[in-house]
Structure formats: C-alpha cells, structure tokens
Amino acid sequence: MRLTIIGGGGFRVPLVYRALLTQTATGDARCTEVTLYDTDPLRARVIASVLARQAEEASEAGLPDPPAVRVAGDLDDALRGTDFVFSALRAGGTAGRVGDERAPLAEGVLGQETVGAGGVLYGLRTIPAALRLADRVLAVAPEAWVVNFTNPAGMVTEAMATRLGHRVIGICDSPVGLVRRAARAAGAEPDEVGFSYVGLNHLGWLLTLTHKGRDLLPGLLADDAALASFEEGRLFGARWLRALGALPNEYLHYYYFARETRAAALAADRTRGEFLHRQQSAFFAEAARDPAGAPALWERIRREREETYGAEARAAGGDERPRDAEDLEGGGYERVALALMRAIAGDRRTRLILNVRNNGTVPELPGHAIVETVCDVDGLGAHPVPTVTPGLAETGLMLQVKAVERATIEAAVTGSRAAALRALALHPLVDSVNAAARVLDRAGALPQPPA
Question: What's the pLDDT score for residue 26?
Fold first, then answer.
C-alpha cells in the first residue's frame, strides 16, 4: 500500500511516519512507501531527513521493514500509483495564517485559524488550492482515497467532495481527544467506551459516553472533581457544562465565551499564527544548515508546540495549568488517519469520528453537507451511524455556521466578493456588516478560483 502526503514539508508529517513505523498490520493494509510532495522542496528535504532518522531508530529497536520514503519532484509524480493521499496543504504558508488572524483583530473581531473571520479568510485562500489538488487526483489517481487534514477541515472537505464524492474524508483530532479525556475522567478505559458525537468541524458536542450499557456522561457532569481533572472540564467550567448537558468540542469556547476569548486575543503580544511562523521558520532554517541535528530539533520544537496549544483559550478561562502529559505525546491526527486508512485498505470495520457527508444524520442540514460525526469505516468508505439528535441550540448554531461555510466555498469557487462578504458578515462571531466589509478590504483580493 502506498501513501502520498501533499504538504510533505509540513511539521506534522513525522508524527504520521512515526505511527506508521509501529504498525502491526500486514498484507494489503501495510504501508510500504511514503511519498512526500511540497511546493517548497527545501522543507520536504528537511522533513525527509527527520523521517530517515526515525526509520533508523525503528530498525535499531527491532521494528521490521520501515516504509520507504521518497520526495516527488511534481504533483502528478507524487500522485501516480498511490492508494491514499493525505492532504495537508498550507496555502500561503504560516505567513498567510498571520494575515488571516491579524485582519480581523484589527477590526476588533476574533482572528483564529479556523473560527470566525480568520477561518473564513483561511478557507477563501485554501479552497482553490484544495480543488486543484482534487482535480489532479481525479486525473492521475482516480481510485485513491483522500484523507483531508487541511483546515478549515469541514469546509475544505465539503469543497473537495464536489469533485471526489465519498472518496474524500476529513479528519480532526479534537473529537477523539475529547472522548479519550472524558472517558478517563469518568473512570473508564477510552478503548472500551461508546459515544455519540455530532456537529461540524470545530463545532461539535459529545452527547453520550457509554460503558457496558450505561451512560457515564450524567455522572461525569455532576462530579466537580472529575470535571476539573481534564482540559474541557476546566475550560468550560462545571456550571456551564451542567447547564448544557453535554461536553462541547474545545473550539466552542470561542462561541460560549466570545467576549473573554476576543479580549485575550486582542491583549496577546502575538497570535498563534505568529508564534508558529517564527518557530517553524527558525526550525527549517536551522535544520537545513544541520540536517543531522534536524530530528532532535524537530522533537524539541514539536514538544513546545504541543505545550502551548490552546494557551490563549485556557488563559481566557483563567486556567493556567499545563496540558495533560498524554496529550503532549501526539497521537491525534495521525492515529485517526492511520486507523481510517487501515480500515479501508483491510476492509476491517472500525468506528471513528470523521468529517463526511451528512446523509440524514442531522435532518435539518442538506444531505451533501459535511458534518463531523461517528462513522463505521470499511472497505467501501465511511458511513455515519445513527446518533442522538442535537438540541435546538446546537442545531441552530450548526445551521448558521454551515451557511457561512457554504458562502465561503461559493466565494472561493467563483471569486464573488458578495459571497465573501456574506460569509464574513453571517458568522456568529462577527458583529457588524461594516466590520466584515473592512476585514475583507484588509485581506485584499480574493484568491484566483480554480479553472
């Protein structure tokens, strides 16, 4: 089985390869080759050097047959003959993210990579590139499955699905992390619980958490000490979680505590994008000068990146405690992606939370709209399973944000400035049409739509 990573110079790629090295699957579900492609060849070469060292360490530890790694010279070469494509695009690089965050903040509204006006701007910039990739997959590797890592994952997956249908599936590590942490807090092993989760990407809720036929969620919500033992419990607070009757995805903090998160973002010395831009620029410059030291440097920078993840939201909620040790080790995106890949390649039924077509999961949304929900995966792809119906408040917020996503896709595909303004102004976290128009002006011209 062959895997291609588009955005192969991305910082998360060694996490994927590290997970592949520990795979126990054999036969047609075993990955034998990883191809990296990045528009920046230097970044791809640096990451390849990190993977080479990981393979050496795996061999020294007695792990057999690490997947071969190659760096492709062009996109078609990268795609030809592949079975799976991991899409990890970063259109405009981390510098583009900085602009996406700063333009809204200058108007006093939230600037964040995937949420609010910042998420709309990132979608406008990213969707044309994602559609061009989808078109090349259709032309060069039409039987391949595309696993979309690219943010904003929901709207990017929905745009790509207009070309690729069910053969593109979006993933995110936030839901699986929430389930894992909630299960531990409730006294159960994460691998032994069932769950109902539904929403959009970065806008979802854990509605049930079952173990041996019993829903653990009511007891967890009633236990102050248990709620204080994990990140989402501390982030949202016992009072609000009990009033809500569910556990929200961490990104809902931007909605439920909009005033506080906006104030924290405006008061911060730098945005998350600026932190990552400086960190990653320094990493690639130093690693290019000293390839032998790149693996150790990558691990140090990765740890720093994980330790600071979500710091702004935690600060807004008054929680200065460090992240849980298990969350610092990674195992999110890559674990979901490889479980998905193996389930399809080996036709082994696996239950995962994924971004897929709605198909009636949320009756109020169109059937082709991408939702984030519990799916059974087999050789034919990912299939949403029946779930608990979300409440009116959750459904209403999903409908509003889905309207924003649809308008963003329209603007990215057609170049319509009116659709872009509609996407920004309709977002629940943008409080003025005039502010939305000024954000759009600050962001400059819309990206060129795909041909």
Answer: 46
